[in-house]
Amino acid sequence: MIQVENLTKRYAGGEAVRGISFSVEKGEVVGFLGPNGAGKSTTMRMLTGYLPATDGKIEIAGAKLPGESLLVRQRIGYMPENVPLYPEMRVEEFLEYRGRLKRVPGREIGHRVGLVLDQCGLTDVRGKIIGTLSKGYRQRVGLADALIHNPVLLILDEPTAGLDPHQIRSFRELIKELGKDRTILLSTHILSEVEMVCRRAIIINRGKIEASDTLANLEKRVQAGALQIEVKADPAKAKEKLLQLPDVAVVHELAQAGDWVFFEVTASPGKDIRGEVDTLIKKENWPLREFRREKARLEDVFVELTQE
Ligand SMILES: Nc1ncnc2c1ncn2[C@@H]1O[C@H](COP(=O)(O)OP(=O)(O)O)[C@@H](O)[C@H]1O
Ligand SMILES: [Mg+2]
Fold it and tell me: How far is the CA of 16 from the centre of ligand 1 (A)?
């Protein structure tokens, strides 16, 4: 659905996007994740044909940029970072106007407007002046605008920026729903957003792609959190035994309570030590009352990949 090769954007101040390549398959909901200034908006503007690339190839649903930019715009619903709305227009009137601009046939306009009003939860405010709406509703109008011509691909640039937690929650539900029968590329610097709506993420930092993988695989990349165990055993002897295990890197004694000793056991990079620690505890017959491992989170991956 999206194919990008060696895409580059040079502004007067320097390179904002530095030779990135990636693809998005039909039906995927992909998070485009990166800190502020990473190059997310610049990339999305190039994908939608609003900003010419300095170099590289872009193909959207079979249409190539810059040559076929009209076709590309027909196939994409784009919600830019700052949704440009006409504050003096009524919601319904605005969507009709946008539909006509995007060449929705006259006899279909009424039907399309009704459909996107319903999809975006705007039916109750269809007659309201856009300028009087809350930020959450205005974002919905922006999304309805992106959907009016029934595009196969949605490109959403930080769609939940500036919304309050309730609005964010309902907006996410909306995006999830839309993702059931559409391809979506969604940029954000909020990690939990990606975790909630996307299966795959592309992480961009300073104009370069640092990672592109399913969330499950990204989480595997960082060292899993340490294993915490509490056993009834002689502390020094237990520590020694734990350290003898092949994949155990570090053992910290965190606390003692009576005969119980609490350890934090860290694995060598990429290793899962739960099995061997469990086997040891059983072999030594240590009574056990705590055994848990912190799960690695996308946030850890993000921090690790985008730090200075
Ligand atoms: N029109 C522009 N002219 C010059 N530099 C720009 C322009 N737009 C963005 N930049 C710069 O390009 C980099 C990437 O910006 P942007 O794509 O907006 O990042 P993001 O959306 O990830 O926050 C930043 O360093 C930004 O200052
Ligand atoms: Mg941006």
Answer: 6
CA–CA dist 131, 85 (Å, integer) = 9
- Going by alpha carbons, the residue nearest to atom 27 of ligand 1 is 37
Domains and CATH numbers, the chain: 2-220 (3.40.50.300), 224-295 (3.30.70.1340)
Cα–Cα dist 187/190, whole Å: 9
Query: If you average pLDDT over every residue of the chain, what do you get?
Result: 91
Token reading at 5: 């090769």
- Kindly give the distance from the C-alpha atom of residue 86 to the centroid of ligand 2, in angstroms, as a whole number: 22
Closest CA to 138 of 152, 159, 169, 154: 159
* pLDDT tens-digit map of 74-101: 899 999 988 888 999 999 999 999 999 9
Ligand nearest to the CA of 203: 1
Check pocket membership of 307 for ligand 1, CB cut-off 6 A: no
> What average pLDDT does the segment 50-64 reach?
94
Q: Decide: 246 in ligand 1 pocket, CB within 6 A.
A: no
Rounded CA-CA distance 277/156 in Å is 46
